[in-house]
Amino acid sequence: MKKKTFYIESLGCKVNQYESDGIAAQLEAQGFSRAGQGRTADICIVNTCAVTARAGMQSRQETRKLIREHPDATVIVTGCHAQTDPEQFKKISGVNLIVCHQDKNLIPAYLARKAPEKDLFEFRKPEYGKKACFVGFDQPVYGTMTRAYLKIQDGCNQFCTYCIIPYARGASVSMPFEQVMAHISGLNGQGFKEIILTGIHTGLYGLDLKPETSLTQLVKTLDDKKTVDQIRISSIEPNEITDDLINMARPGHILCDHFHIPLQAGDDGVLSRMKRPYSVEQFSEVIHKIHEILPHAGIGLDLIMGFPGETDKAFENTYKLVAALPVSYLHVFPYSPRKGTPAWHFTPKVPSNTAKKRAALMRELGEQKRSDFIKSNQGRILKGLIQNQGDRQTGMLKAVTTNYLTVFIKNEKDTHGNPDSLKGQIVNLKYDQCSNGNCLVGRIVS
Prior knowledge:
Its cofactor is [4Fe-4S] cluster. By secondary structure, this protein is of the alpha/beta class. Helix content is about 30%, strand content about 20%. It has helices at about 15-30, 55-70, 80-85, 85-90, 105-115, 165-170, 175-190, 215-225, 245, 270-275, 280-295, 310-325, 350-375; strands spanning about 5-10, 35, 45-50, 75-80, 95-100, 150, 155, 175, 195-200, 230-235, 260-265, 300-305, 330-335, 380-385, 395-400, 405-410, 425-435, 440-445. The chain has a five-stranded parallel β-sheet with strand order 2-1-3-4-5, with helices on both faces. Helix 2 links the parallel strand 3 and strand 4. It starts with a strand and ends with a strand.
């Protein structure tokens, strides 16, 4: 009997990618197989994103595209956009099932029993308070990347005025501590050298558990036990970066010297309207503390341009702040109004073209920051993980350093002349050559 085939499209964040990989692994364990390139699938799953209006639009476009390309497939949509706006997907002819966030991990078991029909799952709103619980996978999720993701936390209690995600995923909940340790041990046993701890609000990890714990305590335990070679935190709020966490990114410790930190705005008035829990001064102090202890750490910022009420002066404050901070790269987005959030009603609105111009200026600053960071690391010995996927055009190996630089490595082989055996390994490297828009070319050093 021919195996049923499936295809999963994952949009948005690392948490979505982790969840899609987990669903795929469970489907394969149930006897399904992935649809090959250019082949139609029996089942198509779209794991949607709602973080911006554009992400929602892309989720709907991808759903329609899969319905066209796989006309006989059972089409299932899930994820944040499907959770916050299921009516949009009910309008799309060919969607068979809309699965709420809390049930997405049940999709494989359900498909193994029988083909789904409309409305068989009870679509529910996210849970808050004591009813909220962590939804994950029993077994470690390996995925297809060199570095493994592990979702240790889900949901958010912050309710920033611009953000739809708490309405999609509910309250902050954590994977039980012992389960985290077991998953990391399992990933290490499969040969993963680096694990990326991820979540919707990762810094809240452990505060809902009994007994209560914290992200810092989790990393400290991993550091003490050396369960895996490297840990990276996908994103963390500035007010959740402890001194202990920074110190565990020093040489000889387990945490990568890389912090991705949402700033969003560098003006106290805008931060207040966004309901961000820190001031410009507090944010600046955290960045300078990281830089003082770890002068070559990679520090990335998220920024939103054109939030309602952002005046020219407020933008200037943000620009000046970022220009003065020792950061290494920026992720910049024009503000995207999300219906259902408080900011949807905020005035005065910033014209779209103004927001785009400010974003463009900030991205130019980001390129300069990246260039300066690259120059500051040139000639230094860095620790990097060789990726399984090299550069297709040149055939060079590709490494990601602990401080989040990508370095291409030319003509390197192991002692037996085999370049492939270096993939997935942590090496010391240097780069001396920087060309083609900050493309780094280096070499392995002893």
